[in-house]
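User: My collaborator sent over this chain with a note saying "see what the structure looks like." That's all I know about it. Can you take a look?
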Amino acid sequence: MIKSYTTAANKACRPEGHPLDPLRRISYSWTAMNDVHVRSHDRPDTPEVPVSSGGTRFASGPTLALWICALAALIQTGCASFSNPVANGIPVRLLPDELLAETKEDYQQIPLTLLRQSRPDQYLLGPRDTLGIYIEGILGTEETAPPVNIPASPDLPPSIGYPFPIRQDGTVSLPYVGAVEVAGLTVEDAEKKVVAIYSEKDILRVEDKRILVTLLRPRHIRVLVLREDAQQAQVSLQTSSLRGFGTTQTTLGGGRQAEGQILELPAYENDVLNALAQTGGLPGLESTQEVIVQRGYWNTELDPACEHRSYPSKADTSSDGDRRVVRIPLRTKPGEPLQFRPKDVVLNNGDIVVVRGRDPEFYYTGGILISSELPLPNDYDLTVVEAILKARGTLNNGGINSGNFNGALVGAGVGNPSPSLLTVLRKTPLGGQLAIRVDLNEALRDPRENILVQADDVLLLQETHNEAFTRYMSQVFQLNFFGRFINRGDLQGTSTLVVP
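Assistant: Without extra context I'll predict from the sequence alone. Here is the result:
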């Protein structure tokens, strides 16, 4: 509503025959439709002279106070700072520690040597190893050369002889002597034992015949590796607007991709580190930074019905005995004890290695901020001030939005107050919701006020009552006056009042 009031005090304002006192005080009783009444304070007998007629006189006294109260009520109902339902949140200084977000920057990667098993100085034979054995006169003749095998691995020397696998009981079956136990022996000790057995049974003379024992193929452990942190190929397409304002970007692909591989790991290389190295390397930021090892197979004799049983149970994850489920964290806090043992990183035949993908975490913005859903970083902390900047919000700039077409970064006049009332809506552990009141002006000065953002937080930025009233008085409420004096007898003036 705009009301214009014009005053013309000239000869028409002076009664006929009445001398004009240039020093007398003039009071104006303003009415709508340009009605002005002029009265002399120095001469009470001077009649009230209307300058223009037609219109209704403005209310005064108690009626004017009612109009002012009504205007204030309209301002409060229409201004978001006065009607903000979550403005009276808990101040940060009164927030308990259990409701603060946990920092991510205290975690450090564990030494990779903890994921690898120690290797003995000499190779010890065991079940599923294959030996190369040559016994002249029994396995081969003097006229024929013994077979020579070149292994695929450069870590193993060439082997000589015919293949003899070591059975599950740790024995190898040889002609004329039967089963010979060699599990737990080195290759050299196994050769000495075979020579001694043939000499004791007087089957052949060792002085005349050659007996050779070598490692033809080391045993392998088969494990299954399932990874959910593999990244799909991603292509970004960017197009410019026909009107020349901004660009449009479209992303195709991306995201996580689950993969599974069956590995045959050689003996003494059957550990978590080698399993990860052969399936893509260490888990990235898109993973939970944890390796889960599930041991063996489901025992149907112990759990025939598989009913009323939680998995994993306490026995599966117990620190005593053999665990059926082993969790190996890849990042821990300094000084924190490890949650796994050296034998937990050793993989056995039939084990399943799982690397879970991390579910994306988001925080949300609203209020004066643009309503959006923004990803939360996985490897570093994000404070409320950084979250507002990431959302391209206004911060200590007088509420001027830099995302405009004319590029104006400075407001007119003395400027406006910067919005400083930030309400963080945070979920509680029991499923409730808590409103946290953050003073951004204080957060820029005190790191304790600049709290961390956690997943599913909702950040609502609004003005305080004082900031909203200051902005209203500087932008919306306007009272302009223009006047000129021709002489002491003439006065022309125009005043404009702009209210919402």
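A starting point for your reply to your collaborator: Residues 62-78 form the longest helix (17 residues).
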